[in-house]
Amino acid sequence: MTKLNYLDLIDTELGGKHVNILSYKAIYNALLMTRNKGKTTCLIAWRTAKFIKYGKTTTWVRVFKNEIKKCKRNPIKKLTIKILKDKYKIDAKLEDFSVHGDSLYYKGKPYINYVRLGAQRSEKSNDDDNEDCLVFDEFTQDYASLRRYRGNFVEDFNNLFISKKRQKQYRVFLLGNAETPSNPLFNYFDIDNLPNDFEGIKTYRNGAFLVAKSNEFIEDLSQVSNDYDAKMKSLFKGTSFDKYLRDGATLSNNIQFIKKMPASTRFYASFIVNNYRMTAFYNGNDIYIIKGLDESRHVINVIEPTRIKNAYLLSSSDRKYFNRLAIARKANSLYYDTEATADAFSMIIKTLNI
After folding, report:
1. Residues 6+ apart with CB under 8 A from 217
2. What is the pLDDT of residue 217?
3. Distance between CA 187 and CA 302 in Å, rounded?
4. Helix, strand or coil for residue 283?
5. Which of 306, 288, 310, 300 lies closest to 351, judged by CA?
6. How many CA atoms lie within 13 A of 68 on its CB side?
7. Which of 86, 107, 111, 136 could bridge across to 51 with cysteines, CB 3.0–4.6 Å?
8. Best CA proximity match to 164, nearest among 89, 59, 241
9. Which tens digits make up the pLDDT trace of 267-289?
């Protein structure tokens, strides 16, 4: 595992090698790190330096309104000022920055515009010739977290990107937590769910989509910053939370339902959720859901229409057709091949209200 320097999120040591993420020239760049390691602070410092030196502006996206409020509360910290000075040779002061409305200002000029994903349609008319970057902070929302979101999470973000890009060389930075096993954006673009111990860079779609993953963590108690942090480490040492905080392990309850499907099963139904394709099979009262589907069979689609010929859109009124699924759900006899499949299938359960 790498001990990252806070200053070097873009140009850094990762997986034992020196990498510059910008040198890959990907359009979508997903940066995955463990929690509370300074992803947001580093990116704000980088985008601040881009504005001060080159006049480049940024749209900063969060999913929910309350998240936008938190972003605006204290976006520039002492660490941001330190990064600007040490990394970018810029002498700035906290008093140079202010927040007015939904924008962050430097010396009276706006350069980061905060946008709630649900309000992305209003952004289509806000065309800024100097804007060249879209940051999606905390993009690794699992399906359970998105139950409150009204709209199509993936399509809304992609539409925002397309409307922003226009004729410009526009890039996206996706900031997320390495602990989250899957997310709708990765599923949509068919991005692998990287193992917990993977660290480094992988590219997809002919280099257009980059995923950089770091498992940075504090090696021992002597390296923590204060007594409170030390006691936190001691409090959870040896528990599942210890693995979660230190190694990026998941806290998902789905892990107990990961089970290999036996050979003697029968086809039940096929599903698509944000391009994540699944097939359900049954054996007695047990139902097994695995990734992948046979498009020649009828496919049940969730959230958005699909081009698959035999697909139809699922609604809550279809619950009467899924008695076997409801019984298995109640009996805790739904099993999955991976946590990513379990996460995606939660949208089926939500839609049918079972």
Report:
1. 1, 34, 245, 246, 247, 248
2. 42
3. 13
4. strand
5. 300
6. 21
7. 111
8. 59
9. 998 888 877 888 999 999 899 99
Please tell me the distance from the alpha carbon of residue 245 to that of residue 234, in angstroms, as a whole number: 12
Contacts of 14 by beta carbon, 8 Å cutoff, 6+ apart = 2, 4, 199, 200, 201, 212, 214
Structure tokens at 185: 């954006």
Q: Coil, strand, or helix at residue 22?
A: helix
The DSSP code for 258 is B
Yes or no: say if 6 and 41 are a contact pair by the CB < 8 Å rule.
yes
Question: Is the torsion defined by CA of 238, 346, 199, 214 positive or negative?
Answer: negative
| Per-residue pLDDT at 333 exceeds 70 | yes
**Residue 135: predicted pLDDT:** 94
Strand-strand pairing, 200-204 and 209-213: antiparallel
Q: What whole-number distance in Å separates Cα of residue 152 and Cα of residue 304?
A: 7
pTM score of the predicted model: 0.68
User: What is d(CA 137, CA 108) in angstroms, rounded to the nearest whole number?
Assistant: 24
Give the pLDDT mean for 290-309: 72
pLDDT digits (tens, 9 = 90+) for 123-178: 554 567 899 999 998 887 766 666 677 777 788 888 888 888 776 778 899 988 77
278 vs 292: CA distance, rounded Å: 5
**Third-level CATH fold of 11-213:** Rossmann fold (3.40.50)
The mean predicted confidence, pLDDT, of the chain is 77
Looking at the chain, the number of H-run helices and the number of E-run strands are: 9, 17
User: Which residues in the chain are classed under CATH 3.40.50?
Assistant: 11-213
Which distant-in-sequence residues (6+ apart) come within 8 Å of 65 by Cβ? 116, 118
- % of the chain surpassing 90 pLDDT: 22
The amino acid present at 310, given as its one-letter code, is N
